[in-house]
Amino acid sequence: MSSYLLLPSLFPLRLTVSDISLSPMRTNMKKRASQTNLQYFSGSPKRKRFSPPRSSAAVSDFFQSLPDDLLISILSKLSANASSPSDFISALITCKRFNNLGRHSLVLAKASQKTLAIGAKNWSESAHRFLKHCVDAGNVEACYILGMIRFYCLQNRGSGASLMAKAAISSHAPALYSLAVIQFNGSGGSKNDKDLRAGVALCARAAFLGHIDALRELGHCLQDGYGVCQNIMEGRRFLVQANARELAAVLSSTAATATGGAARSWVTCDPHTHHRAAVGSSTECPLLSDFGCNVPAAEAHPASRFMAEWFAIRGGPPGPGLRLCSHVGCGRPETRRHEFRRCSVCGIVNYCSRACQALDWKLQHKAECSPLELWPENEGEGGVGDGDGGVQNENEAEDVIEES
């Protein structure tokens, strides 16, 4: 009986409390709904836009906040691993900051062969200036490339030789070997400027640093007694060692890019048939050894490719009566008449060094060489043919390079 009496009194109280607590919320919801409906039907809804802060530190983008040391490190990695000069230059022209930091000495000092491999058709004053900046930064590879270009292409003998000497002082093997070839031939001077002993010493230093052509040249010098006391057995040992290094270099380079089966597809080990393989192929070069293996031809150095392209564009050597080395991977021109040796059998091809003759003999000249009764361009200074693909200097009584 009492519960029925209390019910009417409690019920109105609960309604009053709920109305009081929910009334502001309901009012706000109604206002928002009405505003939304009005904006929708009016066709002009208000959108909130992001307004960036007005402080200068927040306005600058994140790229500008990166430290210079980090960007220099990134550009140094790029210059050391770029596959061509255009890859590196494309990064420099991205923005002004990259252009400034890309010319930093730490970046240019790390530039690799491929980054510095400028084509002769793209040669310009800016390309010359880029190589000069790399030289000033202490890049040894740039010293050698620019030295070869100046010595042989631009005919600036003194500057080119000094740049190659600067690279040789830093134990750059190709520079040491190139200086040896210059000493053997007396390039840039007369016949009396030859220094065979200095050439042998430079070859020995380059061979010690792992230069295969220098080791092969040194072996021929020992076999022939050219600039050094003759030692046939020691020279033959150096030639076999050069062949083994050549094969090891090719195998190690292809192992990273080819599978085992693909790497073995071009290796043939029949010593009786390797001389009958296709000669003159652009993809294969018979190994200069008794192993009977054919390996892909080694890629020419960017300096050699530049010289070959430079004189091909200009239609030949830099002067009348001058010749280019017949080995396609060399590119060196004569600096005076009859500087290079020519084949003692056919008298047609000529080479700057014994190493180039040995390479070209196995590559293509062995199939093309044939004795001639009268040498072309014979001016009374011909050599005596040895019937074995040898090369004889036209300015000396007899200077034969035997086949390896």
From TrEMBL:
Residue spans of biased composition, Gly residues class: 381-390
Region Disordered, residue ranges:
374-404
**The keyword Metal-binding is annotated on this UniProt entry:** yes
Record domain MYND-type: where: 327-369
The record lists the membrane-crossing segments as none
Which InterPro entries does the entry link to?
At2g35280_TPR_dom, At5g50450/At1g67340-like, F-box-like_dom_sf, TPR-like_helical_dom_sf, Znf_MYND
- Which SUPFAM superfamilies does this chain map to? F-box domain, HCP-like, HIT/MYND zinc finger-like
Task: Recite the UniProt keywords alphabetically.
Answer: Metal-binding, Zinc, Zinc-finger
Matching CDD domains: F-box_SF
The reply to whether Zinc-finger figures as a keyword in the UniProt entry is yes
Q: Which Pfam family is one of this chain's hits?
A: zf-MYND
Where in the sequence does UniProt note compositional bias of the Acidic residues kind?
395-404
Q: Which GO terms describe its molecular function?
A: zinc ion binding
Would you tell me the protein name for this molecule?
F-box protein At1g67340-like
Q: Which organism is it from?
A: Cucurbita maxima
Q: What is the lineage of its organism?
A: Eukaryota, Viridiplantae, Streptophyta, Embryophyta, Tracheophyta
